Amino acid sequence: MPDVRAVHWDEQRSALVLLDQTRLPAEVRHLVVEEISVLLDAIQRLVVRGAPALGVVGAYGVAVAMQQGAREGWTAARMSDEIARIASARPTAVNLSWGVARADARRSDGVAAVLAEAHAIAEEDIGANRELSRIGADWVCDRVGHRPLRVLTHCNTGALATAGWGTALGIVRELHARGLIEAVYADETRPLLQGSRLTAWELADEGIPCFVLADGAAASTAQRGLVDVAIVGADRVARNGDTANKIGTLGVALAARHAGIPFVVAAPSTTVDPTVSSGDDIVIEMRPEEEVLTFAGTPVAPGRVRGFNPAFDVTPHDLIAAVVTEHAAVTPTGADVAEILRGIA
Question: What residue ranges define each of the domains in the chain, with the CATH number in brackets?
Answer without folding.
Answer: 7-124 (1.20.120.420), 134-341 (3.40.50.10470)
